[in-house]
Amino acid sequence: MLRVGINGYGTIGKRVADAVAAQPDMEVAGVAKTRPNFEAELAVERDYPLYAAIEERAERFADAGLELAGMVEDLVEESDVVVDATPGGIGEQNKPMYEAYDTPALFQGGESADFVDASFNARANFEASVGADYVRVVSCNTTGLSRLVAPLQEHYDVQKVRATLVRRGGDPAQTGRGPINDIVPNPISLPSHHGPDVNTIFPDLAIDTLGLKVPATLMHMHSVNVTLGDEPTAEEVRAVLEAETRIKVIREEEGIDGAGKLKELAQDVGRPRADLWENCVWGESITVEENANAGVDLYLFQAIHQESDVVPENVDAIRAVAELADAEESVRLTNDALGLGF
Amino acid sequence: MLRVGINGYGTIGKRVADAVAAQPDMEVAGVAKTRPNFEAELAVERDYPLYAAIEERAERFADAGLELAGMVEDLVEESDVVVDATPGGIGEQNKPMYEAYDTPALFQGGESADFVDASFNARANFEASVGADYVRVVSCNTTGLSRLVAPLQEHYDVQKVRATLVRRGGDPAQTGRGPINDIVPNPISLPSHHGPDVNTIFPDLAIDTLGLKVPATLMHMHSVNVTLGDEPTAEEVRAVLEAETRIKVIREEEGIDGAGKLKELAQDVGRPRADLWENCVWGESITVEENANAGVDLYLFQAIHQESDVVPENVDAIRAVAELADAEESVRLTNDALGLGF
Amino acid sequence: MLRVGINGYGTIGKRVADAVAAQPDMEVAGVAKTRPNFEAELAVERDYPLYAAIEERAERFADAGLELAGMVEDLVEESDVVVDATPGGIGEQNKPMYEAYDTPALFQGGESADFVDASFNARANFEASVGADYVRVVSCNTTGLSRLVAPLQEHYDVQKVRATLVRRGGDPAQTGRGPINDIVPNPISLPSHHGPDVNTIFPDLAIDTLGLKVPATLMHMHSVNVTLGDEPTAEEVRAVLEAETRIKVIREEEGIDGAGKLKELAQDVGRPRADLWENCVWGESITVEENANAGVDLYLFQAIHQESDVVPENVDAIRAVAELADAEESVRLTNDALGLGF
Amino acid sequence: MLRVGINGYGTIGKRVADAVAAQPDMEVAGVAKTRPNFEAELAVERDYPLYAAIEERAERFADAGLELAGMVEDLVEESDVVVDATPGGIGEQNKPMYEAYDTPALFQGGESADFVDASFNARANFEASVGADYVRVVSCNTTGLSRLVAPLQEHYDVQKVRATLVRRGGDPAQTGRGPINDIVPNPISLPSHHGPDVNTIFPDLAIDTLGLKVPATLMHMHSVNVTLGDEPTAEEVRAVLEAETRIKVIREEEGIDGAGKLKELAQDVGRPRADLWENCVWGESITVEENANAGVDLYLFQAIHQESDVVPENVDAIRAVAELADAEESVRLTNDALGLGF
Prior knowledge:
The structure is a homotetramer. Chain A is of the alpha/beta class. Chain A contains 12 helices and 16 strands. Chain A has helices at 11-21, 38-45, 58-63, 72-78, 90-100, 122-125, 140-156, 194-198, 234-242, 259-268, 311-322, 327-338; strands at residues 2-7, 26-33, 50-52, 70-71, 81-84, 105-107, 118-120, 134-137, 158-168, 184-185, 207-214, 220-228, 247-250, 279-282, 287-290, 296-304. Chain A has an 8-stranded parallel beta sheet with strand order 4-3-2-1-5-6-8-7, with helices on both faces. In chain A, strands 9, 10, 11, 12, 13, 14, 15 and 16 form an 8-stranded mixed beta sheet that branches.
């Protein structure tokens, strides 16, 4: 059993821990956290050894009645692989610690692509991370775009991607984030950094992205245009996407009109934390229009669950780094263990 | 095994069905729905026999590939007790159908109190519904207030309750409801109807309520003042509330600042649909202040999960109507089967 | 002085009335309203003769202490031109009344384009409505897109427009509209009806649009891509847009990050009702990117004030219908009278 | 003419500047700002001499093409009275500067009451600030409560005030503030600091307050209970409030259901920045209920415009400090100059 440490036990970290615990070939070596709260209490209840991420605050755990297994350095030493799920920018600061203990590490999409060996998406470029030491699992939005682009590229000669990312302002429990009543260009200058981030997965892809921030918390929404060199019908594109295991194509009969009903569905089927690990593409929205300069213009809407779509990707990236399985086997193992697909 | 039919399979109905299925002494006879959607599909997946609530729309289920067990009248005939979880006002229209088949029925808090034998809260007046034919489980807000008032009355001589109910504008999946950016007196004329509704449980209680509607979807928030004839300390009141099985007193160490983190906690502990069946009272908020005219003024905040706090109450009301258990035993059975308390 | 009647005195109607009253060559013959409220009271205070739009409700105005000048038919007879600012779909029902009194009429963008002589945008096709009897001023979104496309077409060989319209869920005072916390594809099927609506102004334009609805009330936001046959720089495009009188290019030094600050600016300069009659384009967002199949891809964000951008257009359409001025003179008169430009 | 300097030219400062400019007995000596933006540009357009509040950033104004009249110290020296409208806590840091130039100063409600000579509300305690050097105009919420309590105290023997303040999360242009979808106890511990703040105006008043924060930007909403020793009818209380010049009692016929329509009304009547300087009390909400321990319980809802209700109070406080007029004359002058009442 591969021993996986998780440094940072917040929105992503706690999900990755549970996902690791559900796999047949790995186990949770422990989790590191900066301060005690209900999440720390639940880590202990789940028998995840709890480590303090910041030495000066270690006694606050004791004050809250929580027993520590040690400091984060101990966890790094204990682990075969570490998943760094700390806030954006902290991961890079942690890298020397992972190097000191010679422990391979995964970072999240909030980190720069510059200090890692590879950026990772299971569907598009698993191989680039096999045996690597430092790998970055790309952000929720880049993951969502990569899963969509990969099959389109294989089938239809993608010429250009244009996407407007209408992003949720904050996660459901982030009471300090806004906006309350605005639609905010973010960033204002175009194109946004999301396109170049997709290029860490698809170096030669022509892609321009725009970002907006709105007063919603449940999921991001992508308004996507892909100019294709070929001329498939909408039905053909839909069939291609339906064949993907990490894309859910929403059927008309489901009566789902937005992110609220998608989360309701996830709750009703019993998903842990009502997570939607898949891109959620509205089947009705998939459309192909004439393009005078190329084949056709494909349009569609997809909703992306910012809290969880990278979770199966992290699990696969662990296998890539530890050379536990190839892409196909890893994805199958992960999907089965978590229960993807509905 | 008592056979329970559920008429209306939306927010409340689907939760009651799952709660019934989890009990040792009852089973789901079937569920009736007005139209096919993802919820109907999942009812079938859970092996709840599916009935059409509206004859003219029955064929739409077939069109959606869903097999029906019959019409709602068949379900009523099949059932020992029916839980009517249809939208407010429809329950009253359904009563003649329940009478025609001589099937006892529960109604929800959106119905008038005038056409039933008793209004029900497990903590406060279970006995009034024992053996009754038509019982109304009071609304989420009235349930929340009743659970709070009952122990205070038993301990501290409640003289008057004043509560401002800051209500969520709609449930998470109700995309058509507002307001988007307003705080709306609702109703404008005071006191609101919520106080008289609490009087269906506590006929002699002096209570004045005010209602507001705000752009939030997760939970209602009650700002509560109770004038007590006695003079307990805040710590004493807190201990009394902590002893209640359907009140969660939020501890300071949990770091919970609003409904978002409460739902996050419910997700993290694995509650089905992240339901919070308990009143959630902030421990820090429980305060006792001087009152020149009486004992003391007690203040506190409690959050109420509008989608689920009545679910255990419905289960208990079934037992009351069917005379399956007394209050204490029923509450214990329900709490154990669902997993209340954290 | 041309006598203009306004049928429908809500969000658009009251603004059009004030804009008409501000012109040197027209006056308000009266306004028709369905029911008394603060807006009706203010119409009386402004000396706009008040007419009842619905005979059966006429006495409600008397009950509210408001004197009526007559019924809407009287207003139509009195007027040289009527501006119909009733809710979408009602305008078409009113057309026979305007025909009966032989009064030319303008309709709003919520109406079908099928029953009018022409659809109108002052910048793009003023001439099509000169002397026409029934003219439709296109919607706020179509107006905003038309103002942008017109100068681009004139300068840079527009090959295709792709726009995602991120729409406010409701106006600030519409407390009944949602969503509260969602991003809703609206419509789900693509492309949206907005593109064909732009084709009522530019019949040969290749345009695909997508619509989303979000929990915001202040302005719509357009995420725009225009594939140009020519290859201008971003600076050149910006200069072209800055030369337009109904486009405000937001300067970096203004420090405006969203619709909230735009409205704040409009308040601070003393605009009536804080109206933003102009398209508001972020200067920083104007960007030109490579396009392998054509000249270049232009991107930009523009905010559109749904309550007011059609107001100067209605004034110009009145002049077109009544043949009071040509496009250039009308736009100059309107802009001067209202005070456009900042 | 009294020369008034305004230090801090944001939400409150710009409104106070315009209000001062509208008075017959005072003029704007200048305004100090920390950085250039559209507000700074508009100050220059209005001929308010512009001063830099922070020396190190002074050159940024020149870079933005804005000419400075000097540094804030120059403004303080130039002024007979300074209104400090800087963010909460900065005012206290500025006090030594005002002392150094021997210039009397007003501070806003975000400052502590400890370092000033008096806290101020025009209706309740104008006299306490006459001739004082350092005066604090209490916050929007305290101003709103003080205006309500003063007439009730005079007429009906106020025994206790209990108020839940449902506060807007941020102002309309504050895109960085939340919550997006939550109702947040703020503060969690009770009673909130608002009650003691009201006691700076009414030292002997028994008042307990509770605060919540919600995703709305337009106005705060107060849910108010006042236990009265006397037993007036609701109509009598309403008449008392209608006689107040800084309370607007909303009439049923106006059809106003929330803050959105109140702002719409303010826009329609042409209020600068759609400001609502008055407490807005729903007439329908004024209710009197039985109280077994005292006279009666009065309930009502009032909406408070956080951006502007303190503006006329600042003008009056200037007159108090400068001994330009007594309370009655000052309030009359201010109201007439601004145009209060509708």
